[in-house]
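REQUEST ID: PR-0412
SUBMITTED BY: lab tech R.K.
PRIORITY: routine
TASK: structure prediction, single protein chain
INPUT:
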Amino acid sequence: MLTAMRASELFAHTLREPPGEEEAPSARLLVQGAFVRKVMAGVFTLLPLGLRVLRKVERIVREEMDAKGAQEIRMPAILPSDPWKRTGRWQAYAAENLMFTLHDRHDRELGLGPTHEEVVTPLVDADVSSYRDLPLNLYHIQWKYRDEARPRSGLIRAREFLMKDAYTFDRDLEGLRVSYGKMVQAYKAIFSRSGLDFRVVEADPGLIGGDVNHEFMAPADVGEDLFVHCTSCDYAANVEAAEAAPAEEADRDDLAPLEDVPTPGRATIEAVADLLGVAPGKVLKALVYRVGERLVAVLLPGDREVSESKLARAFAPDEVEMLGDADFERHGLAKGYVGPQGLDGVTIVADPTIRSGRDWVAGANKPDAHATGVNLDRDFTVDRWEDVAAVREGDRCPRCHEGTLRVGRSIEVGHTFQLGTRYSEPLDATFVDEDGAEKHFMMGCYGIGVSRIISAVVEQHRDEQGIAWPRAVAPYQVVVIPTNMDQEEVVSVAEELYAGLVAGGVEVVIDDRDERAGVKFTDAELIGYPVAVVVGKRGLEAGSLEVRLRATGEQREVPVEDAAAALPGLVAEAP
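STATUS: complete
OUTPUT:
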């Protein structure tokens, strides 16, 4: 990779105004600063500056993966459908329209790889037959493809993106846990070196599968992912996997009598609560779903929302679908007036939060009526308790039970999974263990959004003037700015400094364009070089150069004769 460049030759045409169609600040700055250009929604061309940043992130990823004993391979982007069908993910991805599919000239069904478990597992199965070859850790860095319904936020949610995915293979669960721990440590190092503020949170495995898994979240206002964290301990989790402390049991003495009351036209929690003069949390919400071939009523307090991901996990692999209006009529249910008492032929599933309530208001299972004094055990029973309520701000921490949970937005930059035999069993990938028994590989998988890291870094390192790149991933470390190309001494000193920095191995750009000094300063701040050196007539008359640190805004005067020697140290001071 080139260490020096002249701005007059650099293919980097910055824009005076940010693109109006981009909502995320990082997307606007990356386009305005000439790092990327949009080809279509979710598809971008990386320009020279953007590619330099990407290559630096890749280098950090490779160094940390290699340090943990991972070996790099390269798997194809065009994948056969059969292994995916055997694991069930071809159908799952098709159901969500995430897979780009195509047919070759022989009408074979193919897909563009969104991830590579179905490729690496048969690969290892074919080449590894003995426990002596384990543990094994393979990774690759490759462009992935997902047919996102709403690609947005530039590189954060794209249809084509660069990803590092690693796969570990072990003999047993103990070995998997060791491999998993090494990868988590590698990920922490990668994100720290990239200049990211991040959180490691418990997460929902989604379509990948597996039990233990963690997301690496970079807090950002534009983040699509919500996560919670405790105010008193280190508990953190994606909202799709987050839990709250168990609810305390309500006192069951002196219960109110069960009575029906008219509530004409009050089919919502808010309307019923307003009519009866109670808090929404006092109304028992009963949501009816079709799960497989049976009906399920999910109970939770009226001021709580169901977590669809938790609900789906609770009933996997059965499909969960909320009833429509016609379904209510067909099953003789009064929509908006369903309660758990006397509800025949419906499985009652309750969130544990209802244990803390008593004398509930609930639907009376007939139009325009609710019941008061509805109580657990006396008036209804629960067939199955499941944590299905979405966690909210202020809930008690499930780990320390003392702190409260806070909700924040973030960008998911990495995800690690303990897969177990999720893929080795359906793909029949086995090895012979020390005792001669044939066993399925215990697998882990580990993904990092390499191109997404670029946007995450920009979201965390920007201001009104532009980007303030951390030194480790900046496209160049220093920009030398001669303020006036018509002044011979200014140009001469700038060129001499540039040559000295090049000789010293410093990554440097000299802005030798025939532009006004203001344009050069604006571009330097927009692009975000960590250090800018201003060579101007007034400074030269005083025998000094002005050095600006982009991240802090600090300015220093450095003697002209000392500049080339002093700058590497100043660069090292940059964050």
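NOTES: The longest strand covers residues 405-420.
REVIEWED BY: pending
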